[in-house]
């Protein structure tokens, strides 16, 4: 009887020959030996035949495993994946677009060379047809060879995930797919490269985390995935972080999950760079500089995320504050993004108490607001009156500095004033008078200049400051002027200006001004 052996029936024939004991002990050149010659000389030498044999061996377990057919197929596949692409002559499937490095090389090739060129990840699509348990064993063997670049391994995992994870959420959570998808996600997380997740994009990892939450993967896999994401958080976008919250959470998005990822990221940055090491070099650049650069991106990401979740009426103030305070100060060169998020939160949460509003607005530093944001904040009636005063004060100080005389050498922090003293600005007793004089001189606004500006702005239809802001400034100015008149008898004749205050009156004036400030707020 003539039997034609091929990749689809050779495993069944080999198992049957073993069961029937058709070995050399019975007859020379028996079926077992003939099939082994066929496997070694033909099947294991071919790329696609090795994959087909591995697929068919699953239905014949444990015979195929005991006969080492599975192990030999896996070793054959893993060995072929590590071959230099320039020497690949067998057929393979590659429907994906070339990567950027391949495109650069492609421009320098002739037409014939373009047809014959082989990308490094030529093999990833063919093994996607394997079941997840066999796929895991193949990928472990590929990594154990130590010849495969982590980027290619990451591409292989991404391709397999796209092949087997459904796009539809309804299909994903159905009984028929939940168990298989859960196994796929846990396996991919287990196979992530050891090089700190560099091989996979942060966007792909976040999408994988979203699926992991939906299908309920185990806690260890979720934790490992969060750590991998945290290492590339500076590459993420706000849209990828908007992961829907699951019961029993009442918020729209899973804020606690993002908080955990951010905590992992900050712990990693502190552990690697120490947040204070500035002398170690890495790739020709300072590690501390690299850390600051990535944290600047993270700062923008956090502020953008805060602006999105601030619309949620169920978002608690503590969650908003904790997330905002998770990054260092230098990660926010300006506070415009944070101000926008705070303004949205105030708009959506009208029932906040005075203490809660003060705590929320205390996250923002008015010195880091740009000119446009300062103008908006000065007209924002949702902000506490005290904060509006601070914005106006610094805005006027900034304006006066830009028009000060060339001989002026006042360079002190304009916010170290009585208006800000209880916010943490501390001065020594010996220097307490001069800063106050400087700050009060900055506050001096000549009536002529104000008149000119108001007339000019009224003609153009633009008001310099809103009526609410003028009322605040008028009240502060009148209090300061009355205090200056009361003290005029104790000063020299040349100190008739309201901004001239004697050395001995500095402390009492600061206390008085602070008292009046609290009375209007």
Could you explain the architecture of this structure?
- This protein is mainly alpha-helical.
- Among the domains are: 83 residues, no CATH class; 112 residues, no CATH class.
- It is built from 25 helices and two strands.
- Strand 1 and strand 2 form a beta hairpin.
- Helix 8 packs parallel to helix 11 and helix 11 crosses helix 13.
- The C terminus is likely disordered.
What share of the residues does DSSP label as strand, in percent? under 5%
Largest sheet: 2 strands, antiparallel
Estimated structural class: mainly alpha
Residues in helix, %: 55-70%
Overall mean pLDDT stands at 75
Query: Could you spell the SSE succession in H and E letters?
Result: HHHHHHHHHHHHHHHEEHHHHHHHHHH
The N- to C-terminal Cα distance equals 102 Å
Widest sheet, order of strands = 1-2
Rg over CA atoms: 35 Å
- Give the tally of β-strands: 2
**What is the 3D form?**
elongated
Poorly predicted runs of 5 or more residues: 98-115, 275-287, 407-465, 486-521
How many alpha or pi helices?
A: 25
Family: Belongs to the NPH3 family.
Region (Disordered): 483-521
GO biological process, one term: protein ubiquitination
Domain NPH3: 121-398
